[in-house]
Records
---
Amino acid sequence: GNSVTQMEGPVTLSEEAFLTINCTYTATGYPSLFWYVQYPGEGLQLLLKATKADDKGSNKGFEATYRKETTSFHLEKGSVQVSDSAVYFCALILNYGGSQGNLIFGKGTKLSVKP
Amino acid sequence: KAGVTQTPRYLIKTRGQQVTLSCSPISGHRSVSWYQQTPGQGLQFLFEYFSETQRNKGNFPGRFSGRQFSNSRSEMNVSTLELGDSALYLCASSSYRAAGNEQFFGPGTRLTVL
């Protein structure tokens, strides 16, 4: 079936460290890929997205590239801040002739950044 | 533009009761989806409504139901509550079901079943 696998957390980093959160997917067809972030007590916010192979999504210093050959969409940031502490979810949507189904999420990775 | 709003934010119920959760999408959005978030199962899709019609449904028992009104507001209902229904219920809206179209999430309703 269709699924998303992301690295288990929690991940603890010092401020200004480099961040990578791995995400791989299994999907029939051609999905769109997303990273969502959830801060404590809040809903999900879209961080970035990519809708086709080799697209790079970027926002707030975060980047992820849609790699069809490795079915991956790894999240990276060159220098994390304490304010980046949150839970990060990788997700996909299957596209059907221009319309889309529902979001399929990974389990989430909790990131804690220490000053 | 106001975001997605969900009411109530917190609910405490006992087993066997039923509950209704409400979601108001962003103005102009016609698609509303519901997700359940639990520590064990993560985020799971419940159902999606578009123009008052259920377009897609996840793998949940019939105790979980929903509806959408003509103004796109949506409600979900859970009958005969079980302890395992304790979760954060998230609603998301989007303007259309276009490929790669962003879904905007509300803050969620935290349901606790005792």
---
Amino acid sequence: AQSVTQPDIHITVSEGASLELRCNYSYGATPYLFWYVQSPGQGLQLLLKYFSGDTLVQGIKGFEAEFKRSQSSFNLRKPSVHWSDAAEYFCAVATSGGSYIPTFGRGTSLIVHP
Amino acid sequence: EADIYQTPRYLVIGTGKKITLECSQTMGHDKMYWYQQDPGMELHLIHYSYGVNSTEKGDLSSESTVSRIRTEHFPLTLESARPSHTSQYLCASSGELGGGQGGAEAFFGQGTRLTVV
């Protein structure tokens, strides 16, 4: 069965600092991987996705993520955080074994200090 | 821009009432999903559909039911609402996989925040 772990419930950074949010997945083969962002009271917006090919993927709003097969990880990064990035971030996985139905991690809440 | 709509956005209703949460998408996606999300918590899949006349229960047991009579419409119904149903309900859809380069990503509606008093 597919599963996703986001080990950090909360992350606090200062505006302008770099950011890395961790995501680990459990699945035997290479899964499809996603990062979503959710602002309070809103639905989820797709930031970026990985299906195959280049392991470093670029997304919207200046985010990027790197797929590392050896570590079963798909960490999200941003070189300089803006106050508007404060939100909840979800990592998700979809696999053939799971009929490509997305399974989500519990989310990481990003707090940005001025 | 994804076109998936949920109504109502907010609903406060009394115990025992029957409610239907609406979800519609204009992308022609075959797969649709309902997730339940409590504040600050992960998303739990409660229902999904592969297409018209297809409905399946998700990982999280739910007293709600769904129907899929039209491709674009995937409503969720609670026959008798209870305070334990208070939560946010998120509807999503995804398209067909295209050579491994797309389709598996889910597009989400804005959500319905349900409060049962």
